[in-house]
Amino acid sequence: MNELTSLLSQFETSSAQTLADLDELRRNLAEVAQQTQRAAFLAQYNPDDLHEFFAKPYVVRPIGADEFELIVPKFIGSLGGWPVRTDGAFLIFRVSRFINLINPLPDWLAQELGYQASPFHGVLEGNALVIDRGDPQAVVEALGGSRSITRREGNRLFFKAASRFDLIRQIIRQYGFLPFTLQPVPVELRREGHANFTLRPHQRKAYEYFLETGAISLFVYPQMGKSFVALQAMADLVGPKLVLVPRRSLADQWRARLELYLEPEAAREVEVVTYQGARKVLNRDYTLVVYDEAHHMPADFAIETATAIRTITRMGLSATPKREDGNEDLIPALCGFPTGADWPVKAVQRPTVTVWIVKNDKDKIELTRRLCETPVEGKTFLFTYRLDIGERAAKALDVPFVYSKTKHPLDVIEANDMVVISSVGNEGLSFPVRRVIELSFLYGSGMEAGQRLGRLAYEVAGADRPGEHHILMTPDEYERHNKRLMIYYQWGLDVSVQVPDTGGASRRSLVRAPHVLPARSASPARRSRSAARSALREMKPLDEIDQLLAIPSVAARIAKAQEVVGKTTTPFISRAFRLCFKAAFSPAEIAEGKGLVNAGNISRYRSACKALREVGLFVEDSAGRFTVNQDELARLRALAQKFGG
Questions:
Q1: What does the buried/exposed string (b/e) look like for 140-166 if buried means 16 or more CB atoms within 10 Å of the residue's CB?
Q2: By CB neighbour count within 10 A (0-12 exposed, 13-18 middle, 19+ buried), where does 38 fall?
Q3: How far is residue 204 CA from its own chain's centroid?
Q4: Do residues 402 and 412 lie in contact, with contact meaning Cβ atoms separated by under 8 Å?
Q5: Which runs of consecutive H residues, i.e. helices, occur in 485-597?
Q6: What angle do CA 361, 364, 368 make, to 5 degrees?
Q7: How many Cα neighbours within 13 Å face the side chain of 268?
Q8: Are 420 and 390 in contact (CB under 8 A)?
Q9: Of 288, 282, 315, whose CA–CA distance to 207 is shortest?
Q10: What are the angstrom distances between the C-alpha of 4 and each of 1, 8, 10, 18?
Q11: DSSP H/E element including 21
Q12: What is the mean pLDDT of residues 499-522?
């Protein structure tokens, strides 16, 4: 009997495995069939078009004066310039006359763009420029003579102290003179280092690029392990090393990393100081300098560290190589050639982004309290630029407020699941954060926006969903500073703009506006119109467009257009309305003007424009350009004035 039971059990197990194998085979066959269909479709290509593609397999797109984006298929690889991001099967590079001097394009492409080689070359060394090719006196004259250069000693030119930083920026951009020379890391500096981690393939690729060039800027999505590439270099290189950071809290974090991941002997070789305190090390020699949060480098205090500190190799680290002063092109010129744009990003590292439009600070704190009622697996960071609203939020939620005067801030953050943090926490914090709420911010700073969102990229063990990023704005803040949201689109994230439910205490749900507003007896269409009017009433009329959008009949049509396009395209309705209020643009022109090359964004603008046309608020010309239907708006405004609506 026991033997029969055993045989039956084995049969059941075998049958289950057989069925599972058949299911797997069925799925594989379906995938093969789908791939075959794709291949058959793609095989119907036009040979002439294919020949034309290989004759010019790239696109050069102007993005500014003498500045371009070079778009190249991944299978072709780099043609020059600096890699900034990937978009599906394409690599996107930034190209300018300055960048061409440092990382040259092929001659035929440089000629196409009108770029020519500089007649001389030099290297920045502290407060001097050393000319290693060409006539030094010609360089003196080209740089403004005695207005910029105090004296010349052979091929060494010394800058005037008062203008040296501006002069350094000028000669980097105009002539491509750098504070370093690209060359492989010398063999005599390398050793068989031991580290308590193993680099992932994409990290290893960046590290090998560092060994080939001796100077890299690692620009990658937040929390992807940039610091491990630097730690590997610290383990493998002999001699003293230096890490420069913008804040003392980051210095503490780096010291903890050194102790955790490096052997004691290697850790003792590394010194960690702030950029502002770097004057005490300007005359020292290092084998490696790491510039953490390298987007600070174009500032005067950091430029001095890049040009005066003597180092054989260097490495810059930043997740947000952006600056509000437009000097981000100088970051790799001071730290090293950019890499890391192709690092893979997991789905759980791409958070949801929601912008909430509220009336005032009081409503921000109330909405924050409601958002925090829902528990999350991981920490909640409440960021604030203004200390007053930070103090009020911390008191209302009974949580710590971490700011510049907080003692042992990392310990406070470690000990609490929820904290309010001032701008001191924008950079470098590595904690398992699942929810970020922005109560206030530094105007339109895209760099700050990216840094705060980057706290959510930390890989939480066992996480089954992405983190939440909430930005709380008043109507005036959204109107003036919504450009800070552009970095989310550049990272391929969708941004949802919502208005919280303003019902009574019994209704605490957070609803999308203007799609739905709780009203049990109303129809869906009526609820949508009511939501649109409610949202627009909360936005104080700031200009002519706001006044028009506040007209009930216009708000109803906006709501109808938003119903048609769906959730992800809803924010593009109001943007398209504003952009096309005075002039006619095609969806592609709108996306190009805003620096959006992602096909998805162009498609959303196209859908938004068509939806506004269908409700009578837009007109379209024969070239496919859209603009606001001013005649219809004038009619709706006259009706509103006549009937008091």
A1: bebbeeeebbeebeebebebeeeebbe
A2: exposed
A3: 23
A4: yes
A5: 486-490, 524-538, 544-549, 552-565, 570-579, 587-593
A6: 145
A7: 3
A8: yes
A9: 315
A10: 5, 6, 10, 21
A11: helix 2-42
A12: 40
**Is 377 strand, coil or helix?**
coil
Put the strands of the sheet holding 468-473 in their side by side order.
Answer: 401-402, 418-421, 379-383, 433-438, 468-473, 352-357, 495-498
Q: Which two tokens stand for residue 381?
A: 């960071």
User: Measuring CA to CA, how many Å separate 365 from each of 338, 438, 440, 482, 531?
Assistant: 40, 11, 11, 20, 22
**pLDDT tens-digit map of 215-260:** 999 988 777 788 999 999 999 999 999 999 988 878 888 998 899 8
Residue 627: count of CB within 10 angstroms of its CB: 17
DSSP 8-state assignment for residue 119: S
CA 448 to chain centre: 10
CA–CA dist 295, 319 (Å, integer): 9
* pLDDT tens-place string over residues 419-474: 888 876 656 566 777 788 888 877 666 666 666 666 665 544 335 567 788 889 88
CA 552, CA 558: separation in Å to the nearest integer? 10
CA angle centred on 552, ends 520 and 514, rounded to 5° = 50
DSSP tag of 348: G
Judge whether 306 and 207 are in contact, CB under 8 Å: no
**Structure tokens that stand for 447 in this block:** 């760099």
Whether the upstream peptide bond of residue 514 has omega within 30° of 0, thus cis, is yes
Residue 583 CB neighbours (<10 A): 10
Closest CA to 218 of 319, 92, 289, 122: 319
HEC states along 458-499?
CCCCCCCCCCEEEEEECHHHHHHHHHHHHHHHHCCCCEEEEC
Our CA dihedral for 517, 523, 529, 531, rounded to 10 degrees, sits at: 0
Question: Residue 131 gets which letter from DSSP?
Answer: E
